[in-house]
Amino acid sequence: xxxxxxxxxxxxxxxxxxxxxxxxxxxxxxxxxxxxxxxxxxxxxxxxxxxxxxxxxxxxxxxxxxxxxxxxxxxxxxxxxxxxxxxxxxxxxxxxxxxxxxxxxxxxxxxxxxxxxxxxxxxxxxxxxxxxxxxxxxxxxxxxxxxxxxxxxxxxxxxxxx
Length: 162
Ligand code: GDP
Ligand code: MG
Hints:
Elements: E1 4-8, H1 15-23, E2 41-47, E3 50-56, H2 67-80, E4 84-90, H3 97-107, E5 112-118, H4 125-129, E6 141-142, H5 151-158
Parallel strand pairs: 1-3, 1-4, 4-5, 5-6
Antiparallel strand pairs: 2-3
Guanosine-5'-diphosphate binds near residues 11, 14 and 121.
């Protein structure tokens, strides 16, 4: 069984962009319209010689309504089946109520979670992450899914000991 990495976070934080970077495809829909990926999307990535499965999700939101309910259900399922969880937040937008809700949800689960302050290209990583300590998931790591900044060292860490 390959290790499974789930990408979670509220819509529009860059999950699908990271999925595309990790799998080197354009398979995941990337758009400014939040919530475009409504179910789970699977791909393969590789770190050094370790292949893994990466799962993109539509996102988690508080008080999901209508089609969002299905999106949230799928995202939670992806988290359940994952060995590692990458929780993305938007370093440019700062902390939102959805981020708090997701953090609270993830903290209850016995999963290894990595908190990623995305869209941090051109910003020093301490500044990019500063807002997110309060989520209670440890030190945020600054990345740019779009440019790949910080992603390689992140994935090395994610798979340490696997
Ligand atoms: P998702 O809803 O979480 O899957 O987010 P997407 O991957 O669809 O990205 C949402 C928007 O953020 C798109 O316009 C992306 O181009 C943009 N985006 C994603 N990652 C980055 C990044 O690292 N830097 C910047 N500047 N924009 C990004
Ligand atoms: Mg997406």
